[in-house]
Design a protein that fits this description.
Blueprint (H helix, E strand, L loop, with lengths): L11 H16 L4 E8 L4 E3 L4 E6 L9 E10 L7 E10 L5 E10 L10 E3 L2 E5 L3 E4 L5 E8 L5 E3 L1 E10 L12
Antiparallel strand pairs: 1-12, 2-11, 3-10, 4-8, 4-9, 4-12, 5-6, 5-10, 7-8
C-alpha cells in the first residue's frame, strides 16, 4: 500500500463514546422495557413544559414487581448548572391514581468542575439515580416530567426522557423524598 502503513487501532474518540455505553449495558438492573426521549423547542425547558410518556406494561408479562426508572437529559455547553433536577409523576392510567411523585437529580458537572456524561457531537447525556416505581393497578403507567430548578426557563437542554428497567423487586430503590 502506497504512503506507508495504516494504523488499524480504533480512534480514541470512538472508544470514549462506545466504552461507557457498553459498560452501562452490562451493569443495568433487569432488562430495558421502555426507553424514550422528547425534544424541547429551541433547547429551552420552561417551567410549564411537561414531557409525557406512557408505558404499556401488558407488553411484558414477565415483570410483576415494578420498574427501575431513571431520567436521561441531553444538554449542550450552554447549560451551566451543576445539576438538573427533574420532577417525575407516575400515574396508573387505568385508575387515574397517582402512584408516585419524586424529584430525581441528574449530575451535569462533577465536584472537580468537569462535565459528566457521554457525549455525541455537541450534546452531553447524563442520567439520574434510579427510582423504584411499583407496577400499579393496571398495566399502563404514564409519566410526566417537569424541571424542578429555580429558574423559569433552562437554556441548553435539548431533550429529556425516561428509561424503565424491569425490577426483580429485590433491593428496591425507594423515593428519595427530595
Amino acid at each position: 500500500m502506497a504512503g506507508g502503513t495504516r494504523d488499524r487501532k480504533m480512534p480514541r474518540r470512538v472508544l470514549d463514546i462506545l466504552l461507557p455505553a457498553i459498560v452501562l449495558a452490562f451493569v443495568s438492573c433487569g432488562h430495558v422495557v421502555y426507553h424514550n426521549h422528547s425534544s424541547l423547542d429551541d433547547g429551552k425547558w420552561g417551567r410549564g413544559d411537561t414531557l409525557s410518556f406512557m408505558y404499556d406494561g401488558s407488553l411484558d408479562k414477565r415483570n410483576t414487581a415494578g420498574y427501575e426508572l431513571s431520567v436521561e437529559v441531553r444538554a449542550d455547553a450552554s447549560y451551566t448548572y451543576k445539576n438538573l433536577d427533574v420532577r417525575v409523576e407516575s400515574r396508573d392510567t387505568r385508575s387515574g391514581r397517582i402512584i408516585q411523585v419524586d424529584t430525581l437529580r441528574c449530575a451535569v458537572f462533577g465536584d472537580d468542575g468537569r462535565r459528566l456524561g457521554a457525549t455525541a457531537g455537541m450534546l452531553y447525556q447524563v442520567s439520574s439515580e434510579t427510582l423504584y416505581v411499583p407496577k400499579g393497578v393496571g398495566d399502563s403507567i404514564s409519566f410526566r416530567l417537569t424541571h424542578a430548578m429555580h429558574e423559569d426557563e433552562l437554556q441548553g437542554v435539548a431533550d429529556a426522557g425516561i428509561k424503565l428497567n424491569a425490577s426483580s423487586g429485590h433491593g428496591r430503590h425507594q423515593s428519595s423524598g427530595r
